[in-house]
Amino acid sequence: MPDETLNRFRQSIDNIDAALIHMLAERFKITQAVGAYKATHSLPPADPTREEAQIARLRALAKDADLDPEFSEKFLRFIIDEVIRHHERLRDQI
């Protein structure tokens, strides 16, 4: 049976995971609104210039936070790709 210290660590991890899920949900609510805006204004679903700027910004933030910049870029790229997929679907519905 895990000891109390391990249980406290796990509780903290569970709390952080819950916060991440809520933050991602909020982020996707906003990106869905962006996608709807882009679709109704005939803007492309992807913005490579913004994506590259965001990746560079978040790599720098990751480095400052002692988080592997490669990991942060992979994580952000996964999110961006999903957002673009949503934006394409919204565009195709119009």
3D structure, described in words:
By secondary structure, this protein is mainly α. The protein has one domain (4-93): Chorismate Mutase Domain, subunit A (Up-down Bundle), CATH 1.20.59. 84% of the residues lie in helices and 0% in strands. It contains three helices and no strands. The chain has helices at 4-40, 48-64, 69-93. Helix 1 packs parallel to helix 3 and helix 2 runs antiparallel to helix 3. It is elongated and about 55 Å long. The model has no long low-confidence stretch (mean pLDDT 96).
Helix run count: 3
- CATH class, named Mainly Alpha
CATH architecture: Up-down Bundle
Strand content: under 5%
Terminal-residue CA separation: 56 Å
Look at the structure and name the CATH superfamily: Chorismate mutase
Give the % helix: over 70%
Rounded to the nearest angstrom, the radius of gyration is: 17 Å
| Largest sheet data | none
What is the overall pLDDT average?
96
Q: What's the order of the H and E elements?
A: HHH
- What overall form do the CA principal axes indicate? elongated
What is the tally of beta strands? 0
- Identify low-pLDDT runs: none
Total discrete domains: 1
Tell me the CATH topology.
Chorismate Mutase Domain, subunit A
EC number: 5.4.99.5
GO molecular function: chorismate mutase activity
Domain Chorismate mutase: 1-91
Protein name: chorismate mutase
